[in-house]
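Hi,

I'm pasting everything inline rather than attaching a file, because the server keeps stripping attachments. The sequence lines come first, and each chain or strand is labelled.
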Amino acid sequence: MQSKTTHCKIVDCTIRDGGLVNNWDFSVEFVQHLYNSLNEAGVDYMEIGYKNSPKLLKGADSAGPWRFLDDDFLRKVIPNKGQTKLSALVDIGRVDENDILPRSESMIDLIRVACYIQDVDKALELVQIFHDRGYETTINIMALSNVLENQLVEAFNLINESVVDFVYIVDSYGSLKPTDMSYLVDKFQEHLPNKRLGVHAHNNLQLAFANTLLAAGKGVELLDSSVYGMGRAAGNCNTELLVTELQNTKYNVRPVLDMIEKHMIPLRDKVEWGYIIPYMITGILDEHPRSAMALRSSDQKDQFVDFYDQLTTPEMASK
Amino acid sequence: MQSKTTHCKIVDCTIRDGGLVNNWDFSVEFVQHLYNSLNEAGVDYMEIGYKNSPKLLKGADSAGPWRFLDDDFLRKVIPNKGQTKLSALVDIGRVDENDILPRSESMIDLIRVACYIQDVDKALELVQIFHDRGYETTINIMALSNVLENQLVEAFNLINESVVDFVYIVDSYGSLKPTDMSYLVDKFQEHLPNKRLGVHAHNNLQLAFANTLLAAGKGVELLDSSVYGMGRAAGNCNTELLVTELQNTKYNVRPVLDMIEKHMIPLRDKVEWGYIIPYMITGILDEHPRSAMALRSSDQKDQFVDFYDQLTTPEMASK
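And the predicted assembly:
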C-alpha cells in the first residue's frame, strides 16, 4: 500500500456542501473566520459556494448568498486574500455563463462542474468556456456507484479530448467500500492517463476519511473535505483529519480546531449532519439520501426499523 | 487488495467496552434485548462484561454487575442461550482464577485476557488456566502503537509456545492509520504463523470500521465491534456496519437497527462516546484518551484549542 501523500491538495467544501444542510445560512463573519482558519491551516482551496444563477433555480429567494456567488460581494467578504484559493461549483443547466467574469477580474480561481454521467458532454462544454476565461477546472461525475462501466468508458473518451484539469471520483451516496474506491481509482488512472484526479467522499458508512486517504495514497491529488465533516446528510471527509494526517509540513490543525470550537459546535446544535442511522441505511442500499433527509425532518426521525423496512420492501424500494 | 471476509466472526463488545462509558449501568432488560438482537442478527460472540474480581479492584461497589460477571446471575439474565456465544474479558492482576468455573458449568465460552506488552508472560499463564478449564482463549495486547518492535518479537516468541487460540491487534488509542494496521497484520501473520488473529479498533480518527475491514480482508478472523459504536471515548467499530458489509449471508442488520432505535439513541442522550474532538486530538497524538475524558467531564469540555496546546506544549506533554 502506497502511503505518500505529499502531492495532495485539500479542497474544503464546508460552505458549499454544508450549505445543503442549512440552506447556505452562514453569516459573513462565519465565512470570514473559516477563510482565515483555512488559510492559516495551509488548506489549498476553499469552495465558498455555488456559482449557479438564481434565475435558473426554483426557491432561490430563501437561500443565503453562498448559493449564488457574486464577485462584488466576495471582494467585500474577503478583502485580504491569502494563499488559500477560492473555488465555486456549478451545476449543468443552472449556471448562466454570462455571470462568469474572466478570472483576472474574479476572486475565484477554480470552477468545478458537477454532472451526472449522461451530461458529461454538457459539462465539458462549460469546462471549455471556464478554461478559456482563465480558470482552473474540474469535472465532478456524481453518483458513480450507480454508473455502468460502458457509460463510464464513453465518458472517459470525451474527457480525454477535453481541456479539463481534474476529474473527480464522487461517492455521492457514501456507499463505496475501500475495495470499490481502490477499483475506481485504478479505472480512472487507466483510462485517463493524462488527467489529474480528485475525490469527494461522503461519510454514510464512516469511510469518507479512509477512502480519501486510500485515494491519496494511490496518487489522487485533490481531496475534498469539510470542517467537522459538515455536508449534506452524513457529511464529508473531515478537514481536521486531512490536515493532520497528510504528509505535508505546511498543514496545521490548530486553526481548524479553533473554527470547530467557535463556530461548528454551536452550529451542530442547530442543524444536523454526520453518521446518523437513516443515512447509514441509504448508504448501505447505495441510494440518494433524500428519503433519509425527509425522515429526519419528520416526527418519525428515529424510527429506523420502519424506514429500513420501507426501503427494502420490494414494492417500496426506489430501484 | 483482498476482500474476502467469509472467514470472519464478530465479537460485540457493547456491554464490556461500553460499560467503560456508563460504569456498567446497563439494566438487565437492556442486556437481554441486546443479546436477543445480536443472536437474531447472527453475531458470533457477545462480550457481556468483565470477569474481574471485585476484591482486587478499587471502587468496585459503584459499578454495575457486568463488571464482575457471576455465573448464577448470567443464567438468570440469559435463560435461553442461542447461537451467539458469550465472552468475558479479564485484566492481569484483577482476576481471581478461583472465580472461573469449568466451562461445562459456565455460561461463558470465550475468555479474553487483556495486557500490556510487559505482561504477556502473565497473560499467557492465565490463558493456560482458562484453556485447561475448557474455554476458548485470546490474548489482547493493548497500546500496540506504543510498542517497540523488539518487545513485540519477544512477545511473539512466548505466544508461539502457548495454547492461546487468538491473538489480538488492539488499537487502544485509535491512532493507527490503514497503512499502520496493514503493517501490523503483516507482522503478526509473519511471526505467528500458527495463531489466528483478532482486531479491536477505536474510532478516534474515524478509522475503526475501515481498519477492521482492512484487517478482515487480510485474513484476520475475530472482529470486535459495538452497537452504535458504544465504547470508551471515541468508541469502537460499529456492529451495524460489520453485519452489513461482511460477506456472510447469516448476518442481518435489522435486529441491530432495532436495538439502536430502542436503546442506544436514548442512552446516547445521557452519556457520550464517538467522534468528539478531544478524542480525535489524543488519537492524532497517539496517547491514552484519559486527558480528553477528564476534559469532557469538566466545564471546559469544548475548549479544544487550549486542550490541544496543553498536550502539545513540550513541558505539558505526557511523553
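Chain A touches chain B at residues 1, 3, 177-179, 182, 203, 205-211, 213-214, 217, 238, 240-241, 244-245, 253-254, 257-258, 260-261, 265, 274-275, 277, 280-281, 284, 302-305, 308-309 (CB under 8 Å).

If the labels don't parse on your end, tell me and I'll reformat.
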